[in-house]
Amino acid sequence: MIPRYxxxxxxxxxxxxxxxxxxxxxxxxxxFTALRSxxxxxxxxxxxxxxxxxxxxxxxxxIAAVISDEDSPAYHRQDTLIAGAGxxxxxxxxxxVHEGPAGVKDLIRMGTEFDMEDGRYAxxxxxxxxxxxxxxxxxxxxxxxxxxxxxxxxxxxxxxxxWDDHFVIDLITQDGECFGALVQKPDGQKVxxxxxxxxxxxxxAGQLFRYTTNPDIATGDGIAIAYRAGAxxxxxxxxxxxxTALCYPGAPRFLISxxxxxxxxxxxxxxxxxxxxxxxxxxxxxxxxxxxxxIVSEMELTKSTFVYIDFTHESEETVKYRxxxxxxxxLTFGLDLSSDWIPVAPxxxxxxxGVETDLHGETTxxxxxxxxxxxxxxxxGANRLASNSLSEAIVFGRRIVERIRELDKITETPVLSERGxxxxxxxxxxxxxxxxxxxxxxxxxxxxxxxxGLAKGYEELKRHLAIFDNSLAKREEYEFANLLICAxxxxxxxxxxxxxxxxHYREDFPERDDLLWRKHTVFNRVNGTTEGRIDxx
Length: 537
Prior knowledge:
The protein folds into 3 domains: 9-238 and 352-406, FAD/NAD(P)-binding domain (3-Layer(bba) Sandwich), CATH 3.50.50; 241-349, Succinate dehydrogenase/fumarate reductase flavoprotein, catalytic domain (Flavocytochrome C3, Chain A, domain 1, Alpha-Beta Complex); 419-517, Methane Monooxygenase Hydroxylase, Chain G, domain 1, CATH 1.20.58. The protein has helices spanning 28-37, 73-83, 90-109, 142-156, 221-228, 258-262, 288-301, 316-322, 324-332, 388-406, 430-444, 451-462, 475-496, 514-517; strands spanning 9-10, 16-24, 43-46, 63-64, 116-117, 120-121, 123-124, 134-135, 160-163, 167-174, 177-184, 190-200, 233-234, 239-246, 266-268, 307-310, 342-351, 354-356, 368-370, 375-376, 417-418, 520-524, 528-532. 32% of the residues lie in helices and 19% in strands. It is built from 14 helices and 23 strands. By secondary structure, the chain is of the alpha+beta class. α3 (90-109) packs across α10 (388-406), α5 packs across α13 and α8 crosses α9.
């Protein structure tokens, strides 16, 4: 059984810090929400590393919003719903496509410099988009530019206090209401932050898998923290594997953006044959899940660990201008994007599910909000449309701030203490445990799944639950415990869903089954597993 709290504590004995809003995490969701909240409230930002460490920084493609006269919210809505494979919430998608452009204007006002062409914003197209609607910055460094602009403003804002290198262990709740968070300082001391509103912006869980485009910090903390606090966790079986991550000895799984295929790059197997025509009429621009599985099938057929992406039809000037970051990164490993075929393979990239929220970003726990990849707002359904993630963070960040402004002040503090964990017991090194978990998830809950493997994986994961009987004290121990919770929920959800849809593919149930499975899988620590209905499209 997963305990309510990870450590022993007594609130009466802990130092307490008071603030209006706590923002946990520092990607686009955290930075943007903190800046908007700070217009009217005191904000404390807690990050486990630093302001510049987040998934956002690695986002290359761009941000999707209806800017062009040829485009419309109706087109953007249709593309998002098609990609989401019948599991999107139509009301959440409506919010995204109609409020996205205003969110982009906010980013520009906050100092983000998007690329221009002939005096207007340069727009590109990505897989499964019917129109050119992706704004980008410095070619392929959109995320880095957004983080640069927002973090500079955050540091200068007198209403924002930033705590780097602090770890949020748990949320403090009573009677279904959140009162703030229990935080560990860099020196190991614990402190209670009491706040009127708590916003989880802690990103995804790419570290569940051995190969991921996510940074080390993406350990699913927010999902696990919210689960222990009693929030609903929804649709975590849907994991997006990016089809084309660099696969080269000594190199990290660096993203070769979908925009490269958008600009005409083709995929070839180890024998040099172009193969996507055997899998989908949209070829290289088919939805990500289809491209990723096609690549795995080719790798299996040719007994290889990678396929190639071929962008050699473009001139060196164009390649350098349009994809400077990818070009430079490949070059550091002796690969030239303009003249070499680049070896790539799928890697875990994005979690479609997460902490269930309403249209104002509030979770099923009062005063607890969530924004960005940690959430399940209903925008992405079973498969996220490229470049919708950055827009989702801004659109729902704005709505969270509107809702926070309506909250009344908390006056009392709960009298809470937690005992029950063994004290002083050392835990065997978690590095090994984490690697085992990642390999297990890759083997049994990766791109292709089946009931037998998932059941085996779930049983093997359960053996690690003994970690909760120990006294946890280090950041890596908390992270492993959080990953374990996410792994158990993901495997369980994948086992329950006996069909294939979007980012969830079962070899033993290869067809999509709308009659039985057009519904959400919802987990709650207290209420167990339930089903969520779809608002009809």
